[in-house]
Amino acid sequence: MALAPPKGKQKAKPQRPWFPTQGSSYNASSYQSGAIPTFGAAVSGQGPSTQVNGAVGSSTGEGPGNQWETRFAWRVDAIAAWTYLLGPISALVILILETTNDYVRFHAYQSGLAISPLFLIHIILGLSRAPLWLRWIWFVGEYLFIFYMAWRAWHDANVGGLARYRLPWIGDLADAWVGEE
Predict the structure, then answer these.
(1) Which of the pair, 81 or 9, is modelled with greater confidence?
(2) pTM of the full predicted structure?
(3) Cα–Cα distance between 68 and 57 in angstroms, integer?
(4) TM spans, by residue (predicted)?
């Protein structure tokens, strides 16, 4: 049987608010702070928007956002590299979860488009009873390519200032898909 302390001696539990007391860095009317999104509102939520050559921006001169920001505040270089490491699986997960950073989404598209056919050929070689030496050469080449692309995405984010390394044809297609979003 647990004994409760007398009423005057009870410890008060600290009450934590559901939401922090400091305000958001976004405008109170922006969708990031819970408001209903409206058409014609500025991308940054800071004022009236302008459209120049098909690009929407703020009239205050600010762009649509920081190119280093991600949806979950993850590191851009690590996410871009991770999109290659598990092939189409990691690319799909990142395309679903990361909706704000074009650099990461570009590498997720490029990873899915480049590595999916490689995995398919890997499976076909295994099922077709190809010679073991051929399967090993393919396996080593496939993973060297994957690790090189992961390193390249990480390196370009750290040293290259988010320069996109484009594979022939696939990189252009991935870039076009990111641009259409």
Answers:
(1) 81
(2) 0.60
(3) 18
(4) 79-97, 109-127, 133-151
Q: pLDDT, tens digit, for every residue of 34-48?
A: 555 555 444 444 444
Q: Cα–Cα distance between 74 and 96 in angstroms, integer?
A: 15
pLDDT tens digit string along 92-142?
Answer: 999 898 888 888 899 999 999 999 999 999 999 989 988 999 999 999 999
Q: CB of 160 within 8 A of CB of 100?
A: no
Please provide the average confidence, as pLDDT, over all residues in the chain. 74
Provide the residue ranges of all domains of the chain, joining segments of one domain with +.
Answer: 67-180
The first and second tokens of residue 123, run together, are 């499976």
Q: Which residue has the tokens 């200032």?
A: 161
